Amino acid sequence: MREWMKKGLAASVGLAVISKERMEKIVREMVKRGEMTPSASKELLENLIARGEQEQEQMDQYLRERMTKLLNEMNISTREDIQRLEQQIRLLEERLSRLETKNSTPVQEEPDQGY
C-alpha cells in the first residue's frame, strides 16, 4: 500500500509540473502573438500558479483524510497510537523499577532495647 501511495503522490506532482510548464508555454505563445502583454502574462501566470497550489493543497488534504479513513477502517495503528503506547510502556517500566527498588531495600529493624 505504501508503494501505491508513493506512486500516486509522484503522479500528482508530475501532473502539476507538466501543467505549470504547459501554462507557461501557452502564455508565452499568447505574448508572441500579441494577444497579451508581458506584464499581463506574468500576472496571469502568478494567478494560475497560486490557484494550482491552492487546488493541490485541497487535493492533499482530501488524500490525507481519505487515507486516514482507510487506515481506520483497516484497523491499522497510527504513529500517534504507537507513540501513546510507547509512553505508557515507559511509565509502567518506571513504576516497576521504583517498586523493585523499594522491595529490594532491606527493612531496617530497630535495635532491641531489652525491655
Automatic annotation (TrEMBL):
Superkingdom assignment: Bacteria
Positions of region (Disordered): 96-115
InterPro entries, A to Z: PhaF_PhaI
NCBIfam families per the UniProt record, alphabetical: phas_rel_Lepto
PANTHER family: SLR0058 PROTEIN (PTHR38664:SF1)
Name used for this protein in its record: Polyhydroxyalkanoate synthesis regulator phasin
